[in-house]
Amino acid sequence: MAEETLSIDGPAFLKGEVTVGGSKNLALPLLATAPLFSSKLVFRNVPNILDVHIMLRALSSMGIDFSWGGNKLELDCSKLRYVDLISPALSELRASFLFVASFLSRFGNAVIKKPGGDQIGERPVDIHLEGLKSLGYEANFEGDVIRFKRVRQVNDAEFILKYPSVGATEQLIIASVTGSGSKVFRNIATEPEVKHLISWLSSCGGKIKFYPEQRVVEIESVSSLSAQQAFFIPGDRIEGITWILTGLLCGNNEIWVKGVHHEDLNNVSGLFESLGVQFQEDKIISKRLNDFKNLNIIAEPYPGFPTDAQPLMAVLLSQGLGVGKIKDKVFPKRFAYLSELSKLGLKFELREDTAIIVGPQKLKGNEVLARDIRAGIALVLAGLIASGTTSIKQVNHLRRGYELLEVKLLSLGAKILSDQSLEYVF
User: Fold this and answer.
1) Do 60 and 152 belong together in one domain?
2) Is 267 left (phi over 0), alpha (psi -120 to 50) or beta?
3) Peptide bond preceding 115: is omega within 30 degrees of 0, i.e. cis?
4) Where are the alpha helices (DSSP H) in 347-419?
5) Same domain, 13 and 62
6) Which of 5, 148, 302, 413 might form a disulfide with 110, Cβ 3.0–4.6 angstroms?
7) pTM
8) C-beta separation of 363 from 375 below 8 A
9) What is the domain extent for residue 91?
C-alpha cells in the first residue's frame, strides 16, 4: 500500500461539537493486563486506533480471542498460552513492554524485544528493570531481545523509583497485583492513566491503595483477579487538549469539546481558563484567541504540563505576542518536530533544553513529515492556520493515536482529505 498523505487547506475557520475518543494511554496498559486473567473481560469506549489493533494482534497470538464493535471490546482469556513477544510490530509499540509484567506474574518468565516507540529522545527502561529486580526478576540482554525470569521468590518488597516514570509505575503495579505479600512503591507517577489503571484492577479484586500526593502506592497481592463488570475507558486527555487548542487557533465561533473528564485536565485547566476557555459541567468551550501575550510552558511529570501536549503548544506560541518559551523536563530533547514546523514558516531558536518562539508569525502550507503522534498532530494544527495547502506524510503515526481525525475535523468545517480510504487501519 502506498504511503498515505493527508492534505489540509488553510486557514480554517471552525465551529461545532467534537467528542473525544477513549484514552490511548490507558487503553494500552489495560490490554496489557489481560494475561493476568483466565476469564472474559469487557471494555467500553475503546479507541479505534492502530496501536490498539497492534496490541490485539499480540493478544490473539497468545490465544486470547476478542470481538469488537461500536467501541465495545470483549476478550476471552480462557485459552491463554505463553509466547515470546518478539514480533516487529510489538517492538515499535512501547506500551507492549507492559506485557512483561503480566507474563512474569502469570508464567514467571518473558522474552521481548527492546521497546521502541516515538522518536522523542532517550527513553531507557532501566527503572523498569530495577523495579522488577526488587520483585525477584532478572533480565538478560541478547542483542535486541531481553529475557526475563524469576530468580527468587519475593513476597514483601519496597522500591523507590529514581524518576516518576509512567511506564515503570504501571509495570510494577501490574507485576504486583497478583501473587503474595505486600509491595510499596515510592516516587511513582500519578498521571490520570495510572489512577484509572488502579481503578480497573481494584474493580477486579486487586487490593491497591493510591496516595498521589505522596507519590506512593501500596499493594496487597491477591491470588487472582476476576472482572465483574465492563470497564469504561475515559476520554483521552491529550486529544481533549488538542481540540481545545483547535478552538483557540481556529474557532470562528465556539468549539464544544465533550467526552473528557474535567478532573483529568486539572493540571492544565487553569492555563486554558486564563486564555478564555470555559470548563462547563457537560462540555468545554473554546474559541479563537486574539492578541494574547505569549506563554512560558514547562512540561513536567504530572501534575505538571503534559509532555505529550508540548509540541501542540509550539503552534499556539507562534500566534502569541512576543517571546514564548517551551522547556521539557520529561524529554528534554523532544524538539525534533520543530524542524518540520519550520517548513511551514515557523521560526524558533533552541537554547539547550528550551525552545524560544517569537510571535505572531504567518505560516504557509508545505509538504511535511509526521515523525511521531504528537509531532503529527502539531503539524495538523499548523496546517489549519497556515495559508495554502499543507501535505502531511507518514500519517500512520497519527493513526496510532487519533480516532477518526479527519471525520471530526470535517464536521467542524475543515478542508482536510486523505488520499486513501478511511478503512486504512483495518
Assistant:
1) yes
2) alpha
3) no
4) 373-385, 396-399, 405-412
5) no
6) 148
7) 0.95
8) no
9) 24-222
